[in-house]
Design goal:
This protein is an alpha/beta fold and about 350 residues long. It has twelve helices and eleven strands. The structure holds phosphoric acid mono(formamide)ester.
């Protein structure tokens, strides 16, 4: 069964096919109306969302399909203690494909292990957000004309920003990518992305805490919100919440064709005075989200049992009672799942579900 849990579940060729299909949908919208007639998408959102849930809904509606699900787990049997796996077993009786957002990292992965229909990870905690990645790649392609050979700056909350982690993973498969990581010390990119993705895949990256210093060299500036809901310590959030603000003065330092992306919602990291700048691509990016999700739904429905489109081969997980995942937001610490691990770069042991470094 083909699922999308992590950006690396799609080969570069599959990503390029989805982006090409999205571009064909843009050119020939009428050809795809009705392509999902009599099919149903379930949206299981255990965490708030505006863009992701409603763009999935709009995408399925434009394809002639129907949508069911919940946007608040308190209105589902999760409130009575039903597990993620039992919930997707149930929804597999009602729907042809499932999009799931969950605050607990690894929840869509365990869902995919028992599901008889494709599972799409619509964001799990601070971990991964692969459909935002497809949105971002389509936006870069439409704004710049190419994805290869770009310098992209990620600015703000690189520690908790799942969209950043997923986009760096996907970009690591493209040619000539240079990454500038712009963040205060408290919000730096997790080591597993630097080691297991950038260093392993040969992506050139550097870190700075100055947006003014970095902005002149960028082709894409990817702004992010500091994610209050992920902090365990409110004082730490208060210290970093206004670290970087993009305004007209800073835009004047940038290239004439630089594209500004933001997964949204924004709080105050981009002033509204930037919105009318032609380089501000973040509302065009929202529309691309619906288009690329149309392409993804069509693709996964075609690929779900196609031997040409299997899930990537993973090494056998390591089971060792002496090892523990210490991430309180990991599914293995919230539901009864056997702790599993994998040996990553530099001999570091990581949790199978959430990628945290393991003791
Ligand atoms: N970009 C994004 O995931 O937005 P929502 O949280 O509104 O879905």
């Amino acid at each position: 069964m083909k699922h999308l849990i992590d950006p690396t579940d799609l080969s570069k060729e599959e990503i390029d096919q989805i982006i090409a299909l999205a571009q064909d949908i843009i050119a020939h919208r009428e050809r795809y109306q009705g392509s999902m007639a009599h099919k149903k998408l379930a949206t299981l959102f255990y965490e708030p969302s505006t863009r992701t849930r409603l763009s999935f809904t709009a995408a399925m509606m434009e394809l002639g399909g129907q949508v069911l699900g919940f946007s608040n787990p308190q209105n589902s049997s999760a409130a009575k203690g039903e597990t993620v796996q039992d919930t997707v077993r149930v929804l597999g009786c009602f729907a042809d494909i499932i999009a799931m957002r969950h605050p607990i990292e690894g929840a869509p992965l365990v869902a995919s292990e028992v599901s008889r229909v494709p599972i799409i990870n619509a964001g799990d905690g601070s971990h991964s957000h692969p459909t935002q990645t497809l949105t971002d790649l389509l936006t870069i392609k439409r704004e710049l004309g190419h994805i290869d050979d770009i310098t992209i700056g990620f600015c703000g909350d690189l520690r908790f920003g799942r969209t950043v982690h997923s986009l760096i993973k996907a970009l690591s498969r493209y040619h000539g990518i240079k990454v500038v990581l712009i963040a205060p010390d408290e919000l730096r990119l997790p080591d597993y992305i630097k080691l297991d993705v950038c260093e392993k895949m040969g992506v050139a990256y550097r870190e700075t805490d100055s947006l003014d210093e970095a902005i002149p060299e960028l082709d894409v500036l990817y702004m992010t919100r500091v994610q209050k809901e992920r902090f365990l310590d409110e004082d730490e959030f208060d210290r970093v919440k206004d670290s970087f603000v993009l305004d007209a003065r800073r835009m004047a330092l940038a290239k004439p064709k630089m594209a500004v992306l933001h997964p949204l919602p924004r709080v105050n990291e981009i002033l509204t005075e930037v919105d009318e700048d032609p380089r501000a691509a973040y509302f065009r990016q929202v529309e691309n989200g619906k288009l690329v999700r149309m392409a993804l739904i069509i693709s996964l429905m075609e690929w779900k049992n196609d031997p040409e489109h299997t899930m990537p081969e993973h090494e056998t997980p390591i089971v060792n009672p002496a090892l523990h995942c210490t991430n309180p937001k990991c599914i293995c610490n919230n539901e009864k799942h056997q702790p599993r691990f994998r040996l990553a770069e530099n001999g570091i042991m990581r949790c199978w579900y959430c990628d945290s470094k393991v003791r």
